[in-house]
Amino acid sequence: KHVQGIGRISQTFGFSSDSSEYSKVTSLTKKIAKMFKLFVFCVLIVAITADHIDRDARILDQRSDVNPDGSYQYSYQTSNGIAVQENGVGGHLSQGVAQWYAQDGTPITLQWRADENGYQPSGDHLPTPPPVPAHVLRALEWIRTHPQKEEPVRRFF
């Protein structure tokens, strides 16, 4: 039944289930689904951190554009100071910024980029790693100035 269903879908959109077009559409659909999950995750983060904020907040501006090539952009702004902007290409790149106010009134700005190198958030409110110890810095410098010599490969037949 599953294969027949795919066949019907394939015929509806004008390509056979064994064509490369079908693979491209399936791949793009999976990428868009992943980006939608990331979008939902980001919205949940904002919602969780905003539990103290005015529950009667209104959406002042909301825009969303999803293109056939998988690229997208969206933004929204609420009456209680939350603003989010994001753009990207489904499955390849997502970048954006979210702004809101902490419970003490401090403005928070979170920027992010998600690509082949993973999720990379940045913001003044995020914790920073401790400094690299001096002995590790010295060791790295020694390694840099003393490159490993390549030895000829010995083959025994």
From TrEMBL:
UniProt GO MF annotations: structural constituent of chitin-based larval cuticle
PROSITE patterns the record matches: CHIT_BIND_RR_2 (PS51155)
UniProt-listed PANTHER family: CUTICLE PROTEIN, CUTICULAR PROTEIN 65AU, ISOFORM A-RELATED
InterPro entries in the cross-refs: Cuticle_Struct_Prot, Insect_cuticle
Entry GO terms, CC: chitin-based extracellular matrix
Name of this protein: Putative pupal cuticle protein edg-78e
Keywords on record: Cuticle, Membrane, Transmembrane, Transmembrane helix
Superkingdom, taxonomy of origin: Eukaryota
Residue spans crossing the bilayer: 35-53
Pfam family, one: Chitin_bind_4
